[in-house]
Amino acid sequence: MFSRISITIVIITAVLQNIGYAQKVEIGIRFNADVVITREQISETDQKGIYSSVDPYIAHLSITLRMSDYLISELRGGYAFIGPFDGPELGLVLKSEIIKKNLYIIVCDLLHWNRGGSGGMTSNTYKKLFNTVGIGVGLYTGTNSSLELMFLKPFSGDLGYTWYYPPDPEKKKPIQLVGVIRISFGFSWGL
To answer: Please, are residues 125 and 117 in contact by the beta-carbon 8 Å criterion?
Structure first.
């Protein structure tokens, strides 16, 4: 886990050091809605329960570097405000405009510090660092705006645990993070 985080930090540092070589530098803001997909053990024999929740309150600030006509790197930092997958995030997004000029492919590496906490009397999420990788597509909707759809997959999926009333710590059932579907809309402006 530590080596993956170190690699992410090295990549982010390398991108920041190359700001002077970029063809164009932009700052921006993105608003995201996440569908968090979890797997919960619902009985001693059944581990196939798939659940999802929508977290609509996520915002990121970004620094975008256009490295060439076809390659864009973007550093994003933000916060997910609600739900089981909430907390600060920092990530590197690479975009490639190889399909068309207004359509692009996305590959990303995102560090998410889950805040953890209680979901009421029957569940709890861990305070934990998640390293996720993602893939997606984006569409420029205007000169300063874009729409993106991504799927994020964590390297480790232990999100928390649940139990049924009455609470019994001996009967905790694990909750695994399967992935996150992220829809985002963003604006950016050149410097």
So the answer is: yes
CA distances (Å), origin 85, targets 63, 109, 121, 166: 24, 16, 18, 25
DSSP 8-class letter at 166:
S
The amino acid present at 33, given as its one-letter code, is A
Highest mean pLDDT among 50-59, 62-71, 137-146: 137-146
What are the start-end ranges of the E strands in the chain? 24-40, 49-66, 71-80, 87-96, 103-114, 117-118, 123-125, 128-140, 145-154, 158-162, 173-190
Tracing tokens 């019994």 back to the chain, one arrives at 168
Average pLDDT over residues 146-156: 93
Q: Which pTM value belongs to this model?
A: 0.80
Please answer whether residues 174 and 161 qualify as being in contact, where contact means their C-beta atoms are separated by less than 8 angstroms: yes
> 3-state class of 178 per DSSP?
strand
